Amino acid sequence: MKRLFYFAVATAMVATTAVSCGKSTKGKMDGEWTINEWERIVPSISDNDTYTTKINATSYSESFTSGSTTTTVTGTVNQATWNIKKDGTWDKVVDFTYVSGSTTYKYTITSSGKWDFLKGVSKDYKNNERVVFNTLNSKSTRVTTVGGSSYTNSSSDTYKDGEVSTVYLITESKGKSLKLSADGSNDYSYTSGSTTNTSTTNTKETYSLQQ
């Protein structure tokens, strides 16, 4: 099964028009939020397969659907927090564990960057109804334990400001609750010799955060 582990990076996603928006402020966004619910649905680039990744409280799952067949991996969320700071910076930590046969996998995925509201009033949006998160750093660490022995693999990336970003629509911002959604497209291109192939995936993503 191909693995997504999307928490580290979000690429060129934008929020689309929604029926209900939630205007916010930097003070209301500020704080360390628990990722209570999260869902990301990504169609495959090369075919009609679909990847779905979810968090529901302490449960984690990844599903791969091809035709009428769905394969699912489930695990336990050890930590899922998103620290959004009033100074315009943010950092996210997602740590989860799952068991496959006699092997235990533990992933820790961290990312950080800058954020700000999108300004301007239009027929669809008002000020502070959309927020953009730019990813500047990301790191993924996997600890594999089998037969009493553990092995660690890790990777890290650094990005320029604006190179990797996601625009979210704020669907709710009140008290200790914050909800975000993005429904946009990711464009990919691959060049071989004089031929360039371009593909687009229409990705959907939602977050429900609690303090």
What does this structure look like?
Helix content is 2%, strand content 66%. The radius of gyration is 18 Å and the shape is globular. Strand 2 and strand 3 (59-66) form a beta hairpin. The protein has one helix spanning 26-29; strands at 31-43, 50-56, 59-66, 69-84, 89-100, 103-117, 130-146, 149-158, 165-174, 177-192, 195-210. It contains one helix and eleven strands, in the order H-E-E-E-E-E-E-E-E-E-E-E. 23% of the residues are buried. Strands 1, 2, 3, 4, 5, 6, 7, 8, 9, 10 and 11 form an eleven-stranded antiparallel sheet that branches. The chain has one domain. The chain is mainly β and 211 residues long.
How much of the sequence is in beta strands?
Answer: over 45%
Q: Biggest sheet, in brief? A: 11 strands, antiparallel
Q: What percent of residues adopt helix (DSSP H or I)?
A: under 10%
Average pLDDT: 84
SSE-based structural type: mainly beta
Give the helices and strands as they follow along the chain.
HEEEEEEEEEEE
What spatial form do the alpha-carbon principal axes imply? globular
Describe this protein with a few key phrases.
single chain, eleven-stranded antiparallel beta sheet, 211 residues, globular, 1 helix, mainly beta
Task: Give the arrangement of secondary structure elements.
Elements: H1 26-29, E1 31-43, E2 50-56, E3 59-66, E4 69-84, E5 89-100, E6 103-117, E7 130-146, E8 149-158, E9 165-174, E10 177-192, E11 195-210
Antiparallel strand pairs: 1-2, 1-4, 1-11, 2-3, 3-4, 4-5, 5-6, 6-7, 7-8, 7-9, 9-10, 10-11
